[in-house]
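Before relying on records like the one below, remember that each one covers exactly one chain. Contacts with other chains, cofactors or solvent are not represented anywhere in the record.
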Amino acid sequence: MKLAVLAPFALCLLSASPVQAQVELKNVDGDHVEITINGKPFSNFYYGAAYAKPFVAPLRTADGLVVTRKWPMEIVEGESRDHPHHKGMFVGFGDISDVNFWEVEAESKPSGENPKVKGRVVLKSLGDLKPGKKSGSVNASFNWQAPERGVMLVEDRTMTFYADSALRMVDVDFTLTAKTDVKFGDTKEGFFAIRLADSMTGKKGGIMTNSEGAQTEKNVWGKRADWVDYDGTVDGQKVGIVIFDCPANFNHPPRWHSRDYGLFAVNPFGLKEFDPKAAEAGGKSLKAGDSLRFRYRVVIHPGDVPKKNIADMYEEYAKKFK
């Protein structure tokens, strides 16, 4: 990203420390990777056997404010406790060949018509941890597997974390390769998602805005857009999170499963639940050996950022894929 694009935010990259990398990564007990940016905790990438799917939590602003819900990783008095499968930032889908890879936790109850058979996303291998002065990256591979079905998909994921003085940026790049014939069903339950802090939700005055200028759940949910920005407050301070969808992704621009209660998700497969009158079919079938690659950028920003500036940032991100 060019500094010219960040200029409206009055931002500049921090100068590199002569001793310490700006993005530090530490593997802890075969359970998670600690991510530290500019000497401050940013998040943890949980991949261990204790979890039904990997996730990144909590997400913090450059000032250390936590913008994701803490439950169920932490018990906080008064915090919402719905949807235990919503953990930080994660990837999942509600119907892959009649297997539920969304509501995978034991205590999660399948929604609507979603399959009751639950899959798991299990670590295959943790690759290199690459700290750096301006960015650091984590590589990992996972098996998407189900009882009596074995491995259905293999996921190869790279996450890149950027060092910046006022923004927190993460690029998530993953490829799903079918090990057998599979079909991504037509369901709203998916796909690349973040569960926001309760104080940021629409119920608490937060507001979502998409790349088309539409606002509120009524006008954003189920609609196609290049990006959605979700603004709210944490500890009385205004903050926001935007998700960019890569223009090279399948079915770009995607529909958005973004809710007032705090779910913030991109869904490239769902259709009928978003638009019951749609004539075309939703979902996607893959033959064994076929792959789908997805890339997303998450930007956590302070204050009320003008949406034109968000649009400029998106164009800078997207142009390398066009």
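The longest helix spans residues 307-318.
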